[in-house]
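User: Please fill in residues for this 335-position structure.
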């Protein structure tokens, strides 16, 4: 019976899902987490390995002569040396598109928190501030209405399209950067496996400079590439509408963090809400941790129960299709 190893299963399945269907495919070993120095030993003898963020670099893959398949438990697959996998005849698959609904919903959870600070006001009430207030009601920060404002979406892939749909439901105007008729790659991917499905969603495409100038809210949904790294920096922040808000659920390195922190502290922007940072977890010295009006969440936009269930189901189907000789969602290695 073939050996199957899951290197870091806890993030996907902390106990509310089941590995039972994967167990049907072979002798399964699931580790919640795997230190880098233990990856090769735990994978020894395995024909199939699953990883979320545990790195499978050339030096590790070269030590695993039995390995034939790597299943990435995510959309992004930068943690796997796909070039080396191809040389060694190892197939690598990922799970695209499982988190569209979850991430789009989270964009608005972040944005509404910027607009209303519901959590802060709730804590204030529990702390007795309302009971002590001389007025019938009070607010600790400006309350902002979204209707009539403009959202600029940078990267009009599946998630960007869903965010546009939700923004319109709030009565917002929407513009996007990028060419009409082209599907932007999914966040965190190379883009090879994502093709445009022909839908524009009625959203005007404009150049990035115009999008920044017009938008009250800028939401990032583009992949991280050499061209987009540091996309939001001092120069581009200077082109944004004064008092605009920024939301990032894509990749942390799209933002020059020191520049964004300075803009927030100076009041140039009204706020930022970020689910991703350039280094995760962040170092204590990350300037955004102490920046004014900056909400940071621990990379959880993708992690609703429903999205994780879809992810696991697709990952298991990927493995079964590989074993049947008809692999799908292949992103690198042997095809």
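Assistant: Residues filled in for all 335 positions:
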């Amino acid at each position: 019976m073939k050996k199957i190893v899951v290197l870091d299963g806890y993030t996907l399945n902390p106990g509310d899902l089941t590995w039972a269907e994967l167990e049907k495919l072979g002798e399964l070993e699931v580790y919640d987490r795997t230190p880098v120095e233990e990856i090769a030993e735990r994978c020894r003898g395995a024909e199939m390995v699953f990883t979320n963020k545990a790195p499978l670099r050339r030096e590790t893959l070269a030590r695993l002569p039995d390995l034939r398949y790597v299943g990435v438990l995510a959309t992004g697959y930068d943690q796997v040396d796909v070039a080396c996998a191809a040389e060694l005849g190892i197939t690598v698959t990922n799970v695209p598109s499982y988190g569209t609904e979850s991430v789009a919903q989270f964009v608005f959870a972040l944005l509404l928190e910027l607009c209303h600070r519901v959590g802060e006001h709730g804590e204030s009430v529990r702390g007795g501030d309302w009971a002590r207030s001389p007025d019938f009601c009070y607010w600790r920060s400006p309350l902002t209405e979204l209707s009539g404002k403009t959202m600029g979406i940078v990267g009009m892939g599946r998630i960007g399209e869903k965010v546009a749909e939700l923004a319109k439901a709030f009565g917002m105007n929407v513009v996007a950067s990028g060419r009409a008729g082209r599907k932007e790659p999914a966040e965190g991917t190379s883009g090879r496996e994502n093709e445009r499905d022909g839908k524009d969603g009625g959203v005007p495409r404009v150049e990035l400079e115009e999008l920044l100038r017009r938008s009250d809210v800028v939401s990032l949904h583009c992949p991280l590439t050499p061209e987009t790294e540091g996309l939001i920096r001092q120069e581009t922040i200077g082109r944004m509408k004064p008092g605009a808000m920024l939301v990032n659920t894509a990749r942390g390195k799209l933002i020059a963090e020191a520049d964004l922190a300075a803009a927030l502290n100076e009041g140039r922007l009204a706020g930022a809400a970020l689910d991703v940072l350039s280094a995760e977890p962040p170092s204590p010295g990350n300037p955004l941790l102490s920046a004014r009006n900056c909400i940071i969440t621990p990379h959880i936009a993708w992690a609703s129960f429903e999205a994780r269930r879809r992810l696991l189901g697709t990952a298991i189907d990927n493995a079964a299709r590989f074993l049947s000789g008809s692999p799908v969602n292949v992103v690198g290695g042997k095809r």
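For context: The longest helix spans residues 305-323.
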